Task: inverse folding
């Protein structure tokens, strides 16, 4: 099979690239600096960088060891500033999930209405055009002031950032359902509600799902920044906390995990998109 | 005509043009069809054929006038009038059975799933798609898709069928078989059918009456040509009928020359009394709908009908 051999070769190239990256990383962070002589008390304060010439940047082996440690105990909870990575990720995913679902509940029915009504579409267009480019974090102070709860504010920020792609794609999908399919429903005397569910929804579903996929990506980007601001829990807070602890190893691990979770969220939505896509 | 199953009474369609002017596609159009009649409309693009069909279907509303079907003025679409679309218009996310069942369950809302399925299956079998029920439209050939469109239209047992160039996107061979099917089904079920076509032979084969429309804008129904060929005509020996070429030439002459010049040559044309042309042997009379205008037409001298 030609495709399988292509996949195999691509996989091999991927592994080679990963190995090269890890190799260069390892070489770049080797201990090379000259070791200064100092009293043992002073050396304790200065850390390995000064005593053994070790780079302040952790190497792949350090990160791997630390990651293994985290993976062994993902859900430990030693108080507000020391929680397992699983707990932190769960907080972030829960916030994204809540804000995102609220956005779905608002954006899709509203998008349907706007898409089916040229009047609403024209009337609401200026509002959408102004609200859409606002950075979700710009809402944060206003959210904190009105909601007075940092965790709910983070959810609000996720809501507001994920609503626009879904809304616009739903409007577009609904408005561009083929006229002939609508005409089929009309000649069969199908009522408005049934038409919306049996013709417009399936016809617009691929476009709506594409919007939802864009939204989940944006929501995951924004949650890290939002949690850095609101603090307390979540992977974004973890990154900032570990920066304050000067634990670059943990920061790198968090970056890796953010990437993996983002990829998984995207893959889930991609699967849903494939389920509703129909060949013509 | 005594039995006016379908009667189009003085309809017009106008669109707002540039600078406050209006463009008239057609106006004062009168046309009638008897129950069980198969009628074809022939005319060049832009003469408003599709608009007439859409008005009949209820998808479009006339700017003036009314359409009466089976004694009632129509308003909007109806399950009594099924449409077969040029582009088949199947819902691609549904299977063949799903597409037909959608129409069936739209007509009989209270039917349970099994009853809907059995009814839909009957019409899938009728158009010869047995075995393909669970295929999606994307897996079907153009001809098969249009068969599904026909099955969907027939499944709601409409009072009349409206077809907008249903076979124009198909290859000649498939078109021929589907014409046979449609003719067979319409004869069997006694359907009243209104079909738009560009294909003269298709019209001759299928139609009892052929409506000739002049070029738009400002198109008029110029003539109603009655098909002199026997009702049990076959597609293979159609061209051997003594009146076939006379009929064909008459229609083609109309399309080639008279469709452009008709309105200027015939200022006294009465749209309420469109001449009915009966192609016959030389010397036979051609009667108008009101029987007060008698015309003769001899094969080979088609242009220049005189009142």
Result:
């Amino acid at each position: 099979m030609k495709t399988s051999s292509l996949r195999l070769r691509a996989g091999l190239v991927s592994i080679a690239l990963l190995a090269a990256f890890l190799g260069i990383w390892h070489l770049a962070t080797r201990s090379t600096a000259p070791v200064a002589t100092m009293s043992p008390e002073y050396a304790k304060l200065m850390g390995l960088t000064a005593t053994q010439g070790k780079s302040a940047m952790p190497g792949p082996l350090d990160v791997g060891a630390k990651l293994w440690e985290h993976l062994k105990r993902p859900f430990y909870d030693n108080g507000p500033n020391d929680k397992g990575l699983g707990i932190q990720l769960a907080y972030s995913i829960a916030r994204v999930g809540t804000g995102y679902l609220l956005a779905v509940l608002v954006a899709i029915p509203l998008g349907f209405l706007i898409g089916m009504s040229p009047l609403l579409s024209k009337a609401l267009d200026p509002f959408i055009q102004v609200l859409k480019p606002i950075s979700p974090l710009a809402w944060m102070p206003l959210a904190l002031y009105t909601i007075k709860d940092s965790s709910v504010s983070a959810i609000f920020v996720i809501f507001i950032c994920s609503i626009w792609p879904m809304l616009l794609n739903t409007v577009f999908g609904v408005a561009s359902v083929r006229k002939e399919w609508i005409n089929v429903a009309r000649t069969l005397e199908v009522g408005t509600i049934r038409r919306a569910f049996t013709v417009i929804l399936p016809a617009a579903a691929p476009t709506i799902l594409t919007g939802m996929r864009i939204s989940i990506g944006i929501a995951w980007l924004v949650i890290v920044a939002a949690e850095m601001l609101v603090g307390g829990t979540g992977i974004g807070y973890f990154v900032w906390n570990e920066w304050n602890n000067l634990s670059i190893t943990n920061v790198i691990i968090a970056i890796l995990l953010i990437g993996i979770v983002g990829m998984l969220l995207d893959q889930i939505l991609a699967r849903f998109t494939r389920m509703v896509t129909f060949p013509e | 005509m005594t039995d006016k199953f379908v009667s189009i009474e003085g309809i017009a369609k106008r669109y707002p043009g540039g600078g406050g002017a209006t463009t008239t596609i057609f106006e004062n159009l009168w046309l009638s069809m008897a129950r069980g009649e198969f009628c074809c409309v022939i005319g060049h693009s832009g003469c408003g054929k599709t608009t007439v069909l859409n008005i009949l279907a209820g998808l479009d509303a006339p700017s003036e006038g009314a359409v009466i079907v089976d004694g009632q003025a129509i308003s909007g679409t109806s399950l009594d009038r099924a449409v077969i679309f040029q582009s088949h218009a199947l819902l691609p996310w549904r299977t063949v059975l799903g597409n037909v069942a959608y129409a069936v369950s739209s007509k009989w809302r209270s039917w349970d799933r099994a009853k809907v399925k059995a009814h839909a299956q009957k019409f899938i079998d009728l158009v010869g798609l047995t075995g393909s029920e669970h295929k999606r439209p994307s897996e079907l050939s153009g001809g098969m898709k249009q068969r599904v469109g026909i099955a969907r239209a027939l499944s709601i047992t409409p009072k009349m069928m409206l077809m907008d160039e249903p076979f124009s996107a198909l290859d000649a061979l498939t078109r021929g078989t589907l014409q046979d099917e449609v003719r067979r089904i319409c004869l069997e079920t006694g359907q009243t059918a209104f079909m738009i076509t560009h294909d003269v032979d298709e019209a001759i084969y299928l139609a009892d009456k052929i409506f000739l429309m002049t070029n738009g804008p400002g198109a008029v129904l110029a003539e109603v040509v009655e098909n002199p060929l026997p009702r049990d005509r076959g597609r293979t020996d159609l061209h051997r009928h003594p009146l076939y070429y006379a009929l064909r030439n008459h229609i083609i002459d109309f399309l080639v020359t008279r469709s452009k010049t008709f309105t200027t040559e015939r200022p006294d044309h009465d749209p309420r009394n469109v001449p009915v042309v009966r192609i016959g042997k030389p010397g036979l009379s051609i009667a108008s709908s009101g029987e007060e205008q008698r015309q003769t037409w001899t094969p080979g001298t088609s242009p220049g009908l005189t009142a």
Observations:
- The CA atoms of residues 94 and 126 of chain B lie 20 Å apart.
